[in-house]
C-alpha cells in the first residue's frame, strides 16, 4: 500500500510539473528575469526526478528526505521574487511552482499522517505568504486548501494503511484456520484414534492400565481442544471477566478432570476465573507436571494439585511424594536437549505472563508452583 501511495505522489509531481512548466513558458515575456524562471523550472525537474527515485527506497532516511523536500520546495517558492516583479506578486500572481508546491505536503501526509501533513502544509504556506506584502483573498484561500490537503490527506492515508493491515490480518487468520483444519484432519485419522483406543482399552483392563487410559483420555481432550481452538473438555466459559481475548474460564473446571487414582485436586469453592489463554497454559503445565510424576516419581507415588486465588495472583501447586531429584538435574537435562520442563512448564507460564518454580530433593518428592499475577 505504501508503495502505491508513493506512486500517486510521484504522478502528482509529474502532472503538476508539466503544468508549472507550461505557465513559466507562457508567462516568460512578463518576467523581470526570465532566466530565473527557467532556472527554477530546471530545479523543479531535477528535484522531481530525485524524489521519485528516492522515496520508495528511503527507509530510515525517510524523515530527512521529507524535510529536504519541504525545504527545497519552499526555496523554489521564494525564488519567485527573482523572476516576477513585486507588484505582480502582491497582485496575486501564482508562484513559480504553482500546484507543484503541494507535492511535499502529500509526501508528508504519506510519511507521517495528519500531523506531518499539516506541518508540511504550514511550511509551504509560510513561504507562499512571505512572498507577498498583503496576500489577496485567493492566496489565503489557497493556503487554507493546502492545510486541508495536508490534514485530510494524512488522515485518509492513515485509514488506508489501517484498512490494509486489517485485510492482511484477516487473510492470516483465514490461512491459519485452513491450516488448523488440515492438521486436525490428519491428527483425527491417526493420533486421536490411537489415544481413544488406549483410553477405552485401559478402562476395560483396570489397574495400572486404567491410569494409562485416563492419561490418554486427558491428552485426547487437550489435543482435540488444541486443533479445534475450543476449550478442553470440562472448561466452563464465562464472560470476559478479566479483559483477556477469548473471555474467561473457570480454572477449577479445567483442573478437576486431572484428578484420579493417586491424584487429588483441591480447588476453592468459588469460581477461579482467568483469561482463556492463561487458564489453558496453567492446565497444560499442571498436566505436564503430573505426567512427570507418573514417569519419574516411582511406583505408588501420589500427587496433590492445589488451586489458590488470593486476589493478586492465581497459584496452582502440584506436589508429589515420589523419588524427587538432585539439584541441578533440570539444568543438566536442558543442556542435554531434554526440554520438557523448560518448555512445557516454565516456558508456558512465562508466555502466559507468570512464572514456574520447581523445588525437589532426592527422596523428598517434588513441588511445582505455577503462579500468574492478576493484572
Major sheet attributes? 5 strands, mixed
Shape: rod-shaped
Count of alpha and pi helical runs = 13
Strand segment count: 8
Spans where pLDDT lies below 50 across 5 or more residues:
230-245
Which structural category do the helix and sheet elements fall into?
alpha+beta
Helix and strand run: HHHHHHHHHEEHEEHEEHHEE
Amount of beta strand: 5-15%
Could you describe the 3D structure shown?
With 375 residues, the chain is α+β, with helices and mostly antiparallel strands. It folds into 3 domains: 2-167; 190-230; 233-373, 2-Layer Sandwich (Heat Shock Protein 90). The chain has helices at residues 2-27, 34-54, 62-78, 80-83, 86-91, 103-130, 137-188, 191-205, 208-228, 251-255, 276-296, 329-335, 340-351; strands at 237-238, 248-250, 263-266, 273-275, 303-309, 313-320, 355-360, 366-373. The protein is rod-shaped, with a radius of gyration of 35 Å.
Sequence-ordered SSE layout with sheet pairings:
Layout: H1 2-27, H2 34-54, H3 62-78, H4 80-83, H5 86-91, H6 103-130, H7 137-188, H8 191-205, H9 208-228, E1 237-238, E2 248-250, H10 251-255, E3 263-266, E4 273-275, H11 276-296, E5 303-309, E6 313-320, H12 329-335, H13 340-351, E7 355-360, E8 366-373
Parallel strand pairs: 3-5
Antiparallel strand pairs: 1-2, 2-4, 5-6, 6-8, 7-8
Helix pairs in contact: 1-2, 1-6, 2-3, 3-6, 6-7, 8-9, 11-13
Describe the structure in brief.
This protein is α+β, with helices and mostly antiparallel strands. The protein contains 13 helices and eight strands.
Give the key terms.
375 residues; alpha+beta; Heat Shock Protein 90; five-stranded mixed beta sheet; three-stranded antiparallel beta sheet; 13 helices; 8 strands; rod-shaped
Amino acid at each position: 500500500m505504501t508503495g502505491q501511495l508513493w506512486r500517486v505522489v510521484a504522478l502528482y509531481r509529474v502532472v503538476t510539473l508539466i503544468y508549472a512548466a507550461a505557465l513559466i513558458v507562457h508567462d516568460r515575456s512578463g518576467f523581470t528575469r526570465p532566466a530565473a524562471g527557467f532556472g527554477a523550472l530546471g530545479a523543479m525537474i531535477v528535484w522531481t526526478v530525485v524524489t521519485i527515485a528516492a522515496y520508495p527506497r528511503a527507509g530510515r532516511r525517510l524523515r530527512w528526505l521529507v524535510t529536504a523536500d519541504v525545504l527545497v520546495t519552499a526555496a523554489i517558492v521564494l525564488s519567485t521574487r527573482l523572476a516576477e516583479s513585486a507588484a505582480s506578486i502582491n497582485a496575486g500572481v501564482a508562484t513559480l511552482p504553482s500546484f507543484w508546491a503541494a507535492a511535499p505536503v502529500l509526501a508528508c501526509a504519506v510519511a507521517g499522517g495528519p500531523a506531518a501533513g499539516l506541518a508540511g502544509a504550514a511550511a509551504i504556506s509560510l513561504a507562499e505568504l512571505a512572498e507577498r506584502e498583503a496576500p489577496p483573498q485567493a492566496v489565503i484561500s489557497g493556503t487554507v486548501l493546502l492545510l486541508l490537503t495536508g490534514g485530510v490527506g494524512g488522515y485518509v492515508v492513515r485509514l488506508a494503511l489501517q484498512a490494509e493491515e486489517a485485510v492482511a490480518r484477516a487473510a492470516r487468520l483465514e490461512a491459519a484456520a485452513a491450516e488448523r483444519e488440515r492438521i486436525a484432519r490428519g491428527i483425527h485419522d491417526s493420533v486421536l484414534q490411537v489415544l481413544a483406543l488406549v483410553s477405552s482399552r485401559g478402562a476395560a483392563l483396570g489397574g495400572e492400565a486404567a491410569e494409562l487410559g485416563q492419561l490418554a483420555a486427558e491428552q485426547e481432550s487437550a489435543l482435540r481442544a488444541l486443533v479445534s481452538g475450543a476449550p478442553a473438555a470440562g472448561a466452563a466459559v464465562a464472560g470476559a471477566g478479566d479483559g483477556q481475548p477469548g473471555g474467561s474460564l473457570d480454572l477449577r473446571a479445567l483442573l478437576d478432570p486431572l484428578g484420579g487414582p493417586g491424584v487429588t485436586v483441591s480447588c476453592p469453592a468459588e469460581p477461579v476465573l482467568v483469561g482463556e489463554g492463561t487458564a489453558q497454559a496453567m492446565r497444560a503445565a499442571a498436566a505436564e507436571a503430573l505426567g512427570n510424576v507418573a514417569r519419574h516419581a516411582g511406583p505408588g507415588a501420589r500427587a496433590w494439585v492445589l488451586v489458590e486465588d488470593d486476589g493478586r495472583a492465581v497459584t496452582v501447586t502440584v506436589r508429589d511424594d515420589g523419588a524427587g531429584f538432585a539439584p541441578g538435574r533440570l539444568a543438566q537435562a536442558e543442556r542435554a536437549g531434554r526440554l520438557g520442563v523448560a518448555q512445557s512448564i516454565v516456558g508456558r507460564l512465562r508466555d502466559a505472563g507468570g512464572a514456574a518454580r520447581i523445588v525437589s530433593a532426592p527422596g523428598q518428592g517434588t513441588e511445582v508452583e505455577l503462579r500468574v499475577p492478576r493484572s
